[in-house]
Amino acid sequence: MLYELRIYTMHEGKMDAIQQRFDQHTLVIFERLGMKVNDFWIDRTGLSKLYYVMEYRNKEERQRQWDTFRQDPEWIKVKRKSEENGPIVEKIEEILMNRPAFFTR
């Protein structure tokens, strides 16, 4: 399995907007496209950051899923509408990870 930690840093004042977009749209689209989210967190130290972990069989599946997502007509419409008052996400960090053999949960 391949895991990806995604860290989103929001523009000033956009934390509610990203949460609403994930809650009402993005997670539904992910599910429809077969994209698996393992867990989700919101930074509670005062940083405008959101963290989540995706799971894939391999790098090829990851690439295919994200290519499909980015071209999805529903996503394109949702993103455009949600950013009518300016972009929400300032920066996205993508960290690919594998679970070590000594950790077997």
From TrEMBL:
InterPro entries (UniProt xref): Dimeric_a/b-barrel, NIPSNAP
One Pfam family this sequence matches: NIPSNAP
Limits of the NIPSNAP domain: 3-97
Protein name, UniProt field: NIPSNAP family protein
Organism the protein comes from: Paenibacillus foliorum
